[in-house]
User: Fold this.
Amino acid sequence: MGALVSKKAGVNLVHVPYRGAAPAITDLMGGTVDMLITSPASAEPMVTAGKLRILALSHENSIGVFKGAPTLKQSGLDGITADDWYGLFAPAGTPPERVAYLAQAVAQAMKSPNVIAKINSGGSWPVGSQPDAFRARLQEDTVYWADMVKTAGGSLD
Assistant:
């Protein structure tokens, strides 16, 4: 994502690898790094506390403290989008009836007001798709990100 932003914006960004969002946010707040690309859930507590400022969102849907924040497209970086999503996986060979049971349980949980509120508080929204739709999303994302890696000048080694 950083390589794409760097290329589209015509600026030189240096990638600094971190072992998670917490140390990266700590370094951002301490002035060790100048900017950070992270998930809404990771940034939300510091945004809410007024300690971090959102420069741009990588997707069109904003919610909670992210509502009204500019998107990359609105900031002049059209053609880059990324959604922060979470998925539930089971080992290969899990019986179909068990997968169906888990999918139904997740779909039901995604309707719970408490679950919806918790997901929304992190700047996300619940989906609760079925396994076939999730599989299709994974395939679409694989193609999209492979293209983005090439666009950014990387290789798929």
Notes: The helical segments are 2-9, 21-30, 40-48, 96-109, 113-121, 131-151. The chain has six helices and no strands.
